[in-house]
C-alpha cells in the first residue's frame, strides 16, 4: 500500500493580535470557540512590524486568511490591508464579534484551499509520509520528528519558492522571532542530514537573510 501523502500543516487563518491589547482578548481568542485551524499570534508592535509579517506570509503563498486585531489608525489599517490582510479589526468591537469575523474568514479560506492541496511527492521519488513520520526515497527510509515533518510539509507546499524564516516560526511554533538558541537552524540541519542518508535528490537550501527553499 503506498504511503499517505502529507496534508497541509499551515493554518487556515492566522490572527495577529497586538501585544498591547487586553490580555483577556488573547485568552478568549484561544478558547474552544475558535476553530482548530486558527493560529493566534501576539505581535509586539503591529504598527511597526505588521506590514513586514503580512508580506512575508503572502510571499510564501500562504493561502489562509489573515486577521489583524489592533487599535491602529486609519492610515495603519490601509497599510495592513494593502499588504495582504483580510481584515483589520479594533478590539473594542468586542470578543464575540471578533470571533465571528475569524470563523467567517476561516470558513472561506478552508473552501479556497481545497483547490490547493499538496502534491503526493516532493519529486518523482521522494515521499513524505504523515502516518509514519518518515521520508522515503527509492525504498530508503528515514524517520523524522513531528516538528521536522511539519517543517517539511510547509517547504513542500512552497516547493521551489523561498519560505521565510518568520513564516516557519509562526506556523510551526506560533512565535514571531527566535531566541538565541537558533532552534530553526538546528531542525533544518537535521532535515538536511536525513535527506542525505536516503540519497534524496531534493536540496534544502538556505537563502541568506530570507529563509529556505526546497528544490529538486
Automatic annotation (TrEMBL):
Database matches in SUPFAM superfamilies: C-terminal effector domain of the bipartite response regulators (SSF46894), CheY-like (SSF52172)
What GO terms are given for molecular function? Answer: phosphorelay response regulator activity; transcription cis-regulatory region binding
Q: Which GO terms describe its biological process?
A: regulation of DNA-templated transcription
Report domain OmpR/PhoB-type positions.
Answer: 113-216
Extract the Pfam families matched here. Trans_reg_C
Q: Give the keywords, sorted.
A: DNA-binding, Phosphoprotein, Transcription, Transcription regulation, Two-component regulatory system
Q: Which residues cross the membrane?
A: none
Entry keyword annotation includes RNA-binding: no
Under InterPro entries, the record lists: CheY-like_superfamily, OmpR/PhoB-type_DNA-bd, Sig_transdc_resp-reg_C-effctor, WalR-like, WH-like_DNA-bd_sf
Q: Which residues bind DNA?
A: 113-216
Which GO cellular component term is one of those annotated? protein-DNA complex
Name of the protein in question: Winged helix-turn-helix domain-containing protein
Tell me which species this is from: Rhodococcus opacus
Q: What is the lineage of its organism?
A: Bacteria, Bacillati, Actinomycetota, Actinomycetes, Mycobacteriales
Amino acid at each position: 500500500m503506498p504511503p499517505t501523502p502529507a496534508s497541509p500543516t499551515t493554518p487556515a487563518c492566522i490572527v495577529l493580535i497586538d501585544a498591547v491589547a487586553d490580555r483577556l482578548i488573547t485568552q478568549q481568542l484561544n478558547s474552544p470557540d475558535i476553530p482548530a485551524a486558527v493560529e493566534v499570534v501576539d505581535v509586539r508592535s503591529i504598527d511597526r512590524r505588521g506590514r513586514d509579517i503580512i508580506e512575508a506570509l503572502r510571499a510564501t503563498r500562504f493561502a489562509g486568511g489573515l486577521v489583524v486585531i489592533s487599535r491602529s489608525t486609519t492610515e495603519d489599517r490601509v497599510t495592513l490591508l494593502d499588504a495582504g490582510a483580510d481584515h483589520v479589526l479594533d478590539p473594542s468591537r468586542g470578543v464575540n464579534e471578533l470571533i465571528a469575523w475569524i470563523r467567517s474568514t476561516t470558513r472561506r479560506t478552508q473552501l479556497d484551499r481545497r483547490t490547493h492541496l499538496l502534491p503526493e511527492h516532493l519529486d518523482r521519488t521522494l515521499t513524505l509520509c504523515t502516518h509514519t513520520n518518515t521520508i522515503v526515497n527509492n525504498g530508503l527510509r528515514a524517520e523524522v520528528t513531528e516538528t521536522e515533518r511539519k517543517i517539511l510539509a510547509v517547504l513542500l507546499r512552497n516547493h521551489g519558492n523561498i519560505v521565510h524564516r518568520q513564516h516557519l516560526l509562526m506556523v510551526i511554533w506560533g512565535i514571531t522571532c527566535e531566541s538565541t538558541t537558533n532552534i530553526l537552524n538546528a531542525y533544518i540541519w537535521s532535515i538536511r542530514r536525513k535527506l542525505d542518508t536516503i540519497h534524496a535528490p531534493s536540496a534544502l537550501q538556505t537563502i541568506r537573510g530570507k529563509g529556505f527553499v526546497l528544490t529538486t
